[in-house]
User: Which sequence fits this backbone?
């Protein structure tokens, strides 16, 4: 912890590897990498002398973020400072650096490179989360628990079924992020208003060379900048991911309630400064907390789309805040989710206890279906089931109440009722559903 | 105009075809269509008698939105009311309707069907917008205009180049919407907590039958409801589209300024109640206005993702507001954009006048590049160009100022300067860039 | 239910009285009222003949929304249509109507009048909510229930204490709305760019007359429109209110959980189409659902602030959507909250049962404090309390565990422990806190 | 610049004084200050020995942020770590520190103290902005410029009139912030669930003592935490302020356009790495850029309101991000606005040129009014004015066109027309309006 930070992402939240991507040193290094690729392109296009790009490559790396920053204080423009600095150290070839380019050829292409790395980090962590969910899903596929809708006991599911749902939902995010990449991770090399004015048709040679050098496909057309819908899409898909992690965290938080207790975060820490007895689901709560911020980053990203004419600068300061914070935020959320899934414990005893809490009312849907199958109208069946559910006496179960009903007791005996009013019957399709889901998710991740 | 509306989308904004999709009549009709497919599925699965689905199909269509609404007033539950009503009119087969299903099997599948139609409408209009942009791009590809960054004259582009940028950006949205469809337009048929509890393994037969009947692929797993990230993605991609249309509208609004006048909305209307002389870009302004609302719909859609356990109901009221308004909004924005592109006129005379306004300063980048090519350092060239630009005297152009500079006048004569400091030279790559872009866009739309 | 609506606020949500305010008929009627006041002002200022305003007043009322709409179809401008129409019916005085004014003199002043009525409706309902909370607070001030933090049992509170917290929070909203009014509900009468150009210094007479006629204070300066921060503030304070109601609804939803059951919505309805046994907290869920939409309306309202120069039109379409929907939404939420508070029942038996669930652990803070008072260090006390809490055996309570501890049992006997480890001791300040809060709230409402 | 930051607010944006407030050192120092006040309260209430608070005060200050952080790594809880640390260094009195309190008694009260300082900083800067606007308003009150609506020339205003509008709008924000303070800057001292359980009625003595010590009024009731609507209000009012500054910045950006040129940022910097001739309004653009982020912070702040029961922890991580960034953001925007207003220059020559651009059409409203005064119907006058405006020939003005019209030329001669179709006549009320506005603003600031 350096006490020089006001921003929690600089010490408390986010991984070192992600932070490094967004520090000045790496940003300037990436700018230089783009300038090197451009110089190579200029050489291929015959606009810089043969050999220049090789020659200049090493000297360019001697320029540091600090050098640029010192000059920026005078010039008030970061890329201009970088370019002057690079020229200074690169002798004869120096003047070809940045030739014909505009600042955002460098900045936008550098963003593409940095975000490619950042997305790689996020995707590895997301795969990790999903894999853990797959494991948990298989481990707990047979542990029947209460399914709840509206906070009310509804019908049985299994704990593994719950995890499989999350695996499926997150796999959708993985797919979404992967699809977004082709629109966001793009080379931008088209000069000050997008016309390649300084290069003429040789601009296409530069573009092709840089595509190869940097492993990025170029935008087909741009203004001074790449279209900002890319970052807006990124912010959206990451905010969706964040909200899904929020849902998983909320599940854990709710299942951890004192009255429910089906899961808990098994970590020994001081839970409260005033109440020594407490075991709070703090990791899950942090995930839910950060998700709110993630949602808040979407609107500014959308507002960055309508830039004026060939661009205005209002995206610049906004993205300087938006991009690092967004990625560090999601990074932290994914790390927290991994940790959460590793410390979360299932209390099967509590699950069983809760399952019996409604004394069979959670099977009422099955009874309803059976009555209709036996020839009753839905309406009649519906109100009859409600009646017997409401007539369950203390100490009884639904089956007892059914057997006390004259009409129903003439249709079923206890054995017949037990056969279909039980947790295993209610979840008899769960294994198939879970298995096909996990297969699908695994295939998607292996694509 | 019915004076019974408080909502502008019910009379002022949005098309009739889109409105019809979201009216009670169509919603109930679509619910019935889902129930019919389900009945067919039950029949295939052996859970309803052979022939029932055919028999019931026609009688089901006799139930109207009003019937459902009248019963809902008593029961307080819309799908339960529908199902009771359907049972009433369908005789012996009636009781098999909805057997084993939960309300959101019907609601979520109906949303998928309605949104499929709604997206079809939006995509046709979006294709129309893009096609018009392609036409405009080809028509004006050679009309050189000032390119502006920071609101300042930067360097020449062409009017067709501008339109091609918008065509490209919107094509990205078209692609994005198309990719989202496979995640959003899905069958949901899995019962009250997603386990197919009432059907056992025969649930998969029902699912397959309904997939075929409705032309929708099923979710691999769900809770009581389909995962809400689908609608959040939809809201995001549509808000991105809205913000792109906003950018196009902003371009028109700014180019329509009294001082610029390169384009104008050519429609005869009363422009102002106080100032009869005004020609306001009101269509473009309406587009920008509605885009703000579209951006505002993303956060609620994101907030709908973290539902509790197997679902809570908080997505319901929220989506009832969100979905119709979002689609009608985008619908109106697309119609407005089509209208805008059809009434917008380019004033080539004004374009030419503005091009000369900077008296050649917009070619300064070309001069800079040339000086570097001639062996100058970037720094020296940069400050020299700035100097000659600032020395342009009233009545002069950049070329005059260059020729007054001792150092530069020894390097170039007037003819040489004219050769590369002119609009056509500055935009000599534009046709190639535009052409490859339009080809790309056309291919994407034909995919 | 008219089946001509796509918008739920036109039939399902919102009160009739609120809807009427935002219908075309009332909007046009309010425009006319502003024009009448303006005519009176013109007369006072000597710009219209004496008697004209009285003469014209009655004829002006004959113009209907339909008349205006028919003409708008031709002219494409609503206020211009209205003014032409008014002139038509008002004979000699007709031409003085709207003299020197701009459309937004009428529109913005009309918004102020309509929103004054709308806020009146909301404030009455909010007072009603708060009063009910005060009643509930007094009724349940002594019913001890578990207080929960992180979803975990923390320490006892009372049900009345809970309600008092909500009363206090909502009173803060009441105060906030009242403070916002003076900035939002303002006359705007300054002509086409805010300079009163057509009236010269006589503009101030017109302004003063209209202030008196309409009971509104004028803005001190404007552009063509009143500053939009007013509506943004309104959207903010209403979204804050919505989020507070969301918090109350969430409390009810969580306390209604099957495992908790301390409260429930006591209404007989069909709870689920598949599960006849369910009692879902659907009113509370609807409140939480609509709150999400309310939060989404703040950003567009903020985006309306930065209008260009003396205004652009992008606020217009945006506000046409924003204002009616926002008010109808809050209106529905308040009605739902009133209904919720009227049907919610407290199950004191369940409350008692939950209170005992932790077997005394919820008093651990009191034990901690007592040990420190008795001379222990916090650290020693903290870990000792944790130890005895974790040592509570099945069937035991905290007191038993304390008495099994050698160190502690030498300090306390059972009677002494019972004295301060009990619900009434833990909540002994609650009545005073609640009473001072309710007094404060009542005074605030009576201000 | 330390290269250890990923967050721009830690080096590029925000003032040192604001950053210091949000660094760990100051946060811990403020926590200690609250603990000291609490100890004093405990002493007054007879819960700690007389003299303890004085005795402990100095030793408490020896604990540093680093000490706390080292222990937090072990305990995983910041306030518990602080309290253990404080106890360690404070001898006999140590164990009374934090007695009966919960972490958020300290955290929320510390936020109130820190935000009081932060708001002081913002308000000083905001006053500075407003004062500068007042000066500019007075300086340029007579410089007539074109007023624009829809980007079109509408009617004359003066440059000072423009500035006065901004002064008025920002004064509304100043008032709004001041009103919010009483709800946000509050003492929170009520224990773990808000019941003062450890203190009984002596809690009120503690509360009163701390109110005096810290100069903060206490909340009347709370849960474990102060109600979160306070921070949501703060985020809202600051986002409103940000959007107003955005509007001012947008004005400057638009008036700086190459074609308009009425104002410009007069600073010598490198404007573009490719185009040496450019003078970009980069300060204004940065303001507009950051405003987008500010708007994005409102929704998370709203989402923090609905905490569960007596609180959940999801506000914590969210506020750790939200509060420092929000304040540093607004801090930077205000500093930028001050700088902007100091470097902005008005080009009166350009203003005059633009005023003549419409060749008198901007006086059409005055002609309209005059015709109505002379007895014409509005409709006749409206279309006649439009006709003469459209008939202005090259080289002519509106007056020439009027005099060519047979009907009109019989009503006016050139002298009469000149008398009311001129800039001074059009702005004859401006001085009065501006003066009353500035008086109002000055009074408001002096309140």
Assistant:
């Amino acid at each position: 912890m350096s006490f020089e930070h006001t921003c929690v992402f600089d010490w408390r939240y986010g991984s070192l590897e992600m932070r490094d991507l967004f520090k000045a040193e790496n940003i300037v290094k990436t700018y230089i990498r783009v300038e090197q690729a451009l110089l190579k392109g200029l050489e291929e296009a015959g606009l810089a002398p043969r050999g220049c790009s090789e020659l200049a490559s090493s000297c360019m790396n001697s320029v540091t973020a600090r050098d640029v920053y010192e000059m920026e204080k005078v010039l008030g423009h970061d890329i201009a400072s970088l370019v002057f600095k690079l020229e200074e150290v690169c002798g004869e070839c120096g003047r070809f650096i940045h030739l014909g380019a505009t600042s955002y050829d460098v900045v936008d292409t550098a963003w593409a490179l940095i975000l490619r790395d950042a997305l790689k980090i996020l995707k590895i962590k997301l795969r990790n989360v999903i894999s853990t969910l797959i494991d948990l899903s298989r481990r707990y596929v047979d542990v029947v628990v209460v399914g709840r809708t509206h906070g009310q006991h509804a019908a049985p599911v299994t704990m593994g079924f719950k995890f499989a749902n999350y695996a499926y939902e997150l796999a959708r995010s993985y797919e979404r992020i992967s699809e977004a990449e082709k629109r966001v991770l793009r080379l931008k090399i088209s000069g000050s208003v997008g016309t390649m004015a300084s290069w003429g048709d040789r601009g296409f040679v530069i573009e092709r060379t840089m595509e190869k050098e940097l492993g990025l496909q170029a935008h087909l057309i741009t203004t001074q900048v790449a279209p900002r819908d890319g970052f807006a899409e990124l912010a959206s898909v990451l905010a969706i991911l964040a909200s899904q992690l929020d849902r998983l965290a909320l599940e854990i938080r709710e299942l951890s309630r004192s009255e429910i207790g089906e899961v808990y975060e098994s970590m020994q820490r001081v839970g409260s400064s005033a109440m020594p007895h407490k075991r709070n689901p703090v990791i899950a709560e942090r995930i839910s907390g950060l998700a709110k911020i993630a949602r808040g980053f979407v609107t500014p990203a959308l507002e960055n789309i309508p830039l004026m004419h060939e661009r205005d600068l209002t995206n610049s300061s906004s993205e300087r805040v938006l991009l690092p914070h967004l990625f560090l935020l999601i990074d932290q959320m994914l790390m927290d989710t991994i940790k959460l899934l590793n410390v979360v414990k299932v209390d099967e005893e509590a699950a069983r206890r809760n399952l019996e809490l409604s004394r069979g009312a959670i099977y009422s849907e099955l009874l309803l279906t059976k009555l209709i199958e036996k020839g009753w109208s839905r309406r009649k069946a519906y109100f009859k089931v409600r009646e017997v559910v409401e007539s369950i006496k203390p100490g009884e179960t639904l089956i007892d109440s059914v057997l006390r009903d004259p009409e129903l007791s003439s249709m079923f005996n206890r054995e017949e009722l037990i056969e279909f009013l039980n947790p295993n019957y209610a979840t008899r399709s769960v294994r198939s559903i879970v298995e096909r889901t996990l297969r699908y998710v695994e295939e998607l991740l292996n694509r």
About this structure: Chain C touches chain B through 75 residues (CB under 8 Å). The CA atoms of residues 22 and 324 of chain C lie 6 Å apart.
